[in-house]
Write a structure and sequence with these properties.
The protein has 370 residues and is of the alpha/beta class. The protein contains eleven helices and 18 strands.
Length: 370
């Protein structure tokens, strides 16, 4: 195949994704695209996302149809310069279609997983990329490394990107000790030490935002910058009902109404997402971990954390990203930041900015690292 013809493949967003379904082609055949342009909306078993182009040129051929179930790694479209002959495009499209229909698709490798031991606890992580620059992604309360499924891959272009499971979450040990911010920050710093990472950019969501802030203040030499996504511990407002509801739910029926608070569009909450969270909540030790961490997050109906003084001490670049429709930690909390005017407000996003509007977060993080 002509090297000028670039394949657009079904991405692997997260460890468990094996296929996806295109719900809409944003770009039509014959239209020019640039690196980073939105190409298509894709539905996974967890949530819908937008696929960006990794190449510039013309969308010469759409290979996969709307609503067709496509395995990860299969070619769904072809991008090439306008001067590539149609005959070559047709032959490449024919081969791609044959591969798709035969099912003989080489699946994308996806993240490499591993564990380290910190303070006697096993911490799980997933890694993409092999660049010298290192980014570490830290999820929020009740989340895990898979919550970064839409941003880890694009961030790994030229970088090494680790997504970490905090104690009590994902595949990490469920022992959270006293559940304090210092304990969780120690887990992040211990991960860096165990992996031999001398310096990293830390990105933290919600509780993870507070955790990476504490880590940066505790060991500033290891932290190059902070990107905080709807960080906990900033401002006076918190949706205590959501946090308690998440911790106390014992069935999918009880859990799903609370999950709607995470997204600007509650329809983003799929049955699969709720089922996966219930499987996690039923693991031994999770109930105790979540209740312990609830005490770290809440003092009655008010926030128990205040990381604003820590941010004032942090002598490193800090960027804050917040969804305009956040119903868990409202964007009005940003007024408590040392520099509230520097906040990137993402319109149409709720608390899960990195899942609802991942391209906006990727753009902020990538711009900051240049």
């Amino acid at each position: 195949m002509n090297d000028a013809i670039r394949k657009v493949v079904m991405p692997k967003w997260g460890l468990s994704m094996t296929s996806g379904k295109i719900t809409e082609w944003i770009v039509a055949e014959g239209e020019e695209v640039s690196d980073g342009d939105d190409l298509a909306e894709i539905d996974t078993d967890k949530i819908a996302g937008t696929l960006e182009s990794a190449d510039a040129g013309v969308l010469r051929r759409v290979v996969a149809d709307v609503n067709e179930d496509v395995p990860v790694g299969a070619t769904i479209a072809l991008i090439a310069p306008a001067d590539v002959p149609d005959s070559e495009i047709e032959e490449a499209a024919r081969l791609a279609r044959e591969e798709l229909e035969s099912g003989a698709v080489e699946e994308a490798a996806g993240p490499v997983t591993g564990t380290v031991t910190v303070d006697g606890r096993s911490l799980a992580y997933a890694t993409l990329g092999d660049g010298a620059e290192v980014v570490v992604l830290v999820h929020g309360y009740g989340g895990d490394k898979n919550s970064w499924l839409f941003v880890q891959e694009p961030l790994a272009d030229g970088r090494t990107v680790h997504a970490l499971d905090l104690p009590g979450h994902g595949e990490s040990a469920k022992d959270v000790g006293d559940g304090s911010l210092d304990t969780l920050a120690g887990a992040v710093l211990g991960f860096l030490e165990q992996r031999g990472i001398e310096r990293a950019h830390l990105v933290g969501h919600s509780l993870g935002g507070a955790v990476v802030t504490a880590a940066a203040v505790a060991d500033p030499a290891r932290v190059a910058s902070l990107t905080l996504v709807a960080p906990a511990g900033v401002g006076p407002d918190v949706n205590a009902e959501y946090l308690r509801g998440f911790a106390e739910a014992t069935s999918r029926r009880e859990l799903k109404p609370h999950l709607g608070a995470l997204f600007a569009d509650p329809a983003q909450v799929t049955r699969q997402l709720a089922d996966d969270l219930m499987k996690y909540k039923r693991l031994d030790g999770v109930d105790k971990a979540l209740r312990t961490l609830l005490g770290t997050l809440l003092d009655g109906d008010a926030p128990a954390l205040d990381v604003v003084p820590l941010l004032a001490k942090a002598e490193l670049p800090v960027t804050v990203v917040w969804g305009s429709d956040d119903a868990v930690l409202p964007v009005s909390n940003a007024r408590s930041l040392p520099d509230p005017d520097a906040v990137h407000v993402v319109e149409g996003a709720g608390h899960m900015v990195h899942m609802e509007k991942p391209n906006a977060l990727v753009a902020v993080v990538s711009e900051k690292r240049r």
